[in-house]
Amino acid sequence: MASDPDDTTPTSPPASDAPTPESAVASDGVRWQLVATPPQISMGERAAFRLTRQAHNEGQSQIDASTQTASFTINGASSSTLDDLFSHAERTPIWHAVPPGETVDDTLGVGEVIFERPGDYHVVMSIDGVRVGAMIRVTP
């Protein structure tokens, strides 16, 4: 049987996928961050879970953060579900012209989509040459 590319079976993250910082600065001066809210939920609370991607312009000039494409993994396995959801997320116009010192974000309710069973989940976003991650615990 072929493996499911979106298999989110909770396991300990492989060494290549852990640990990742909560935020990291790319070469263009954008600090990327992945925020899980809340970081611990029960199966019954999955609808309340939010995953937020943030871009903070630490540079001296305006940047276009909308041109960066993110890829996601869950416990080391590629997640085309998160890739698609974030790539098609509606963004405000400021994403195209982020002033120095400003932060933009997009938040999606994805708990019911990516957490099929209780366990520990390590979600990693790779974008603009950096990797950032968040740990989420899902209880019964």
Give a quick summary of the entry.
9% of the residues lie in helices and 38% in strands.
Distance between the termini: 28 Å
**What sequence of helices (H) and strands (E) makes up the elements?**
EEEEEEHEHEE
Summarize the biggest pleated sheet. Answer: 5 strands, mixed
How many domains would you count in the coordinates? 1
Q: Give the name of the CATH superfamily.
A: Immunoglobulins
Strand content: 35-45%
Cα radius of gyration in angstroms: 15 Å
The number of strands is 9
Q: What topology, given as strand order, has the largest sheet? A: 3-9-8-5-6
CATH architecture: Sandwich
- Unreliable residue stretches: 1-8, 11-18
Q: In CATH's first tier, which class applies?
A: Mainly Beta
How would the global form be characterised? elongated
Describe the structure.
The chain is mainly beta. It has a single domain, classed as Immunoglobulins (Immunoglobulin-like), CATH 2.60.40. The protein has helices at residues 80-87, 111-114, and strands at residues 23-25, 30-37, 40-42, 50-57, 71-74, 77-78, 103-108, 119-127, 130-139. A 5-stranded mixed sheet has the order 3-9-8-5-6, covered by helices on one side. Strands 1-2-4-7 form a 4-stranded antiparallel sheet, with no helix packed on it. Mean pLDDT is 88; it is low at 1-8 and 11-18.
